[in-house]
Design brief:
Blueprint: E1 3-7, E2 14-18, E3 23-25, E4 32-37, E5 43-47, H1 51-98, H2 101-118, H3 121-189
Antiparallel strand pairs: 1-2, 3-4, 4-5
């Protein structure tokens, strides 16, 4: 027979009980008490008349903990939404700056030839202007592609994060409803 030790609710002495025992008697003070399972499976001792109340207390405490967990989860979700909005704002403004590369390309092909036509040092300046304008335009075009990829990844990451929050919240809600039903049943049985 497997023995477990619980504390007597009257005097605090350790009392050995069988794994299936529902009641016990303290060998030190002689007090009788009920034995029940707590929230996490631990054996709890309570005076014989309040076995259900101990379960009720444990269930009520679990419901309170779930409410706090739900509030923490909601705060995390709100923070994730704020981070996503900041990142999208940054990407949007970076995109606005990159939208000037086509204008740079047009300017390159208008001003470059003018410098070349002027002659002398203008030829060198015009050629340099055209080459650097093309290089900057190419970099702008590449950056715009990377920006689109970043936006896509940011949106995908945000969607995955929100799905995780939703799954956790659904789990908390189901557990809360189950515990509330248990509490109501315990109160009805009293």
């Amino acid at each position: 027979m497997l023995l477990e030790a619980v504390r007597c609710p009257t005097c605090g002495a350790l009392v050995n009980i069988g794994a299936q025992d529902a009641f016990a008697r303290c060998s030190y003070c002689g007090g009788q008490f009920g034995v029940t399972r707590g929230l996490y499976g631990a054996r709890l001792a309570a005076p014989a008349g309040i076995t259900v109340s101990a379960q009720l207390l444990a269930s009520t405490e679990a419901a309170r903990w779930l409410e706090e967990s739900s509030a923490i989860l909601q705060a995390g979700r709100t923070a994730a939404e704020a981070r996503h909005q900041r990142e999208m704002w940054r990407l949007e403004h970076e995109g606005a700056l990159l939208s000037f590369w086509p204008l740079l390309l047009v300017t390159t092909f208008v001003l470059g030839p003018i410098f070349i036509l002027v002659g002398g040092m203008g030829v060198l300046a015009g050629a340099t202007f055209i080459i650097s304008g093309l290089a900057l335009s190419l970099r702008g075009w590449q950056a715009q592609g990377r920006l689109a990829d970043s936006e896509e990844k940011t949106v995908r990451r945000f969607s995955e994060t929100m799905a995780q929050y939703d799954r956790r919240a659904a789990g908390i809600m189901q557990t809360t409803e189950r515990i509330q039903t248990q509490i109501e049943a315990m109160i009805g049985a009293m």
